[in-house]
Amino acid sequence: MQTTHFLFESLERLSAQVAFSVTSARRLVEVSWNTVDLSLPVMASALFRCDDEEREGGAALPGSAARGALLLEREGGARERFDGVRLSECPALVAEAFGVAAGAVVPRVAWRFTLEEGVARVGDAEGPALLERDVEYLHPEAGVVLARESEVRVELAREAPQALREALRALQHLPVVTKYWMAEYHYKRLLRWPTHNDLPGYEYEAKLSVHHLDVYALPAELAGRFEVIERYQTESVRWYLEGVELPGLGRLEKGRVGFRGSRASLVSKGKKQKLAGGVLKRTEEKSQGLDTWRLSALEPLALEMRRVKRQIYVLNRHNRRVYAVCLDHCEAEGRREPFIQLEIEYNGLLQIEPEEWGLSFEAQWRLARALEARAPRAALRCCERAALFARDVSAREVGAREVSAREVSAREVSAREAGAEAEALAALAALAERLRAETLTPPPAAEVDPALELQVVEEMNALSAALQRAYGFTPSEQTKRQWLAQPAPPALDAADGGRFER
Q1: What's the angle, vertex CA 293, arms to CA 291 and CA 299, rounded to 5?
Q2: Do residue 149 and residue 102 come from a single domain?
């Protein structure tokens, strides 16, 4: 696998190591499209690029008449490009290309970034390259900027010399998760409904061998008991480690680190225990907020793979339990054939009624306070969402007394509102800090209620059996680590790792 994409910590750190002569620069907006039920294949997407940005400060899309280039990617990496397309024409073109209803195609997420073309030079090696910086991820319908990247992405042109590629690879960098997949990740973080795991410290999962990647709905036989409440797709790079010293974390006997940009999480699992119907149970510990740039020094010690995950979250209407049905598509250097597998995992109890959900400061702040005691991890996510909507805070929303213009001047009203907003934001920050400290270390595995465990296992088996009957899937116990650790076939060249690039 030849590395052509690199992620560096910041523009300042990159500039200290790489000379980059800019020949052209522009600010772009890119929009992804999919159906409302996420039924386009994982390997297919449509992206719109537009130079005519209208509102740099907000999260709105360009106007419907703005023209750009529509890019369609099909399974296997084949791409089509349509130049000069109006934004308003994209849904129909996407629908026609993939054979779906035009009304079902919607803009999903978007991102803004500065693209600079030029020549990169490290020592005596130089060649053409692209530099992407100041990336912002947008959710147009919610009207917010989901996240901003301080990192810088560098892409080498195909004709760039090998010496430059090796020189960049020798610098400290992280695995690249493309802007497309980072946008999907931030989309999920915004919209996930809060759950609470009432079997903490353990992972419950059922694995199935699958032969396709288009499961986006449940079999008809499950109607009335289970329903799909959420659909997402994400990508991450995983390093599987064994017997290593992690900076600041001590020795890890066996575990994995998952990277999404400069975000990283550590997962360590215990031995598997097989329960009824083939459901696997094992202890699981997760740590987040790791120093990814120190971890990058572990790269030579790691088994590495890239995983695309499509998830549907399934709610049991009768008891509010939520299960994740996840389709994984994994690739690794030296393997032509990917590893695909379906996993059913227990997620926890849904903590809200549908009518309680809302994408506003007021709604998320209210939920954060309501969930603080019984579901601190869910409450922390509500705090993070509330912060995205902080600019919409008003005196009314934070419970300040309504004041009419007859009582005080407009200036006094504005001052009171500003004070109430500052008070609310300070309270939000304090709660988030307290929750972050509380949830930094997950609770240890403890004795579980046998009756509760039995019910969860029964429901997972019901989901698994229905999927097997509907799609011809078969039970499996193979783990990703086992697949990755198998010796690569000596007769095969290294696989092309660029099929997921967006």
Answers
A1: 110
A2: yes
Q: Is residue 32 part of a domain?
A: yes
Q: What is the pLDDT of residue 296?
A: 78
In a domain, 495, yes or no: no
* Per-residue confidence (pLDDT) for residue 93, from 0 to 100: 94
According to the model, what pLDDT value does residue 390 have? 83
Return all residues near 324 (Cβ < 8 A) that are at least 6 apart: 311, 312, 313, 314, 343, 344, 345, 347
Query: φ, ψ for residue 178 (rounded to 5)?
Result: -65, 165
Partners of 72 in beta bridges = 46, 80
β strands within 99-225, DSSP E: 105-122, 125-139, 144-148, 152-156, 195-196, 202-209
Burial 366-403 (b: 16+ CB within 10 A, else e): bbbebbbeebbbbbbbbbbbbbbbeeebebebbebeee
Total domains in the chain come to 3
Q: Are 445 and 283 in contact (CB under 8 A)?
A: yes
Regarding whether 329 and 228 lie in a shared domain, the answer is yes
Q: Are residues 318 and 410 in the same domain?
A: no
**Is the residue at 179 inside a domain?**
no
The verdict on 418 and 452 lying in the same domain is no
Task: Kindly provide the b/e burial profile for residues 30-60, where b requires at least 16 CB atoms within 10 angstroms of the residue's own CB.
Answer: bbbbbbeebebbbbbbbbbbbeebeeeeebe
pTM > 0.85:
yes
Give the per-residue pLDDT at 494.
39
Asked whether residue 21 is domain-assigned, the answer is: yes
Q: What CATH number does residue 259 fall under?
A: 2.40.320
Question: For 490, what's the count of Cα atoms within 13 Å in the CB-facing half-sphere?
Answer: 0
Considering the domain architecture, whether residues 378 and 343 belong to the same structural domain is answered as no
pLDDT of residue 384: 92
Q: List the one residue out of 203, 215, 195, 214 whose CA is nearest residue 466.
A: 215
Does residue 379 share a domain with residue 457? no
Residue 371, domain extent: 359-439
Hey, which residues does 340 pair with through a beta bridge? 329
CA pair distance 26, 101, nearest whole angstrom? 34
DSSP label at residue 121 = E
Dihedral (CA of 238, 244, 248, 250) sign: positive
Identify the pLDDT of residue 398.
38
List average pLDDT for each run of 10 residues in the chain, which is 502 residues long.
80 95 95 91 82 62 89 83 93 93 92 96 95 94 90 93 94 91 94 92 94 86 94 93 81 87 86 93 83 76 89 95 96 86 96 90 94 92 92 42 42 57 86 86 75 96 96 93 80 40 40
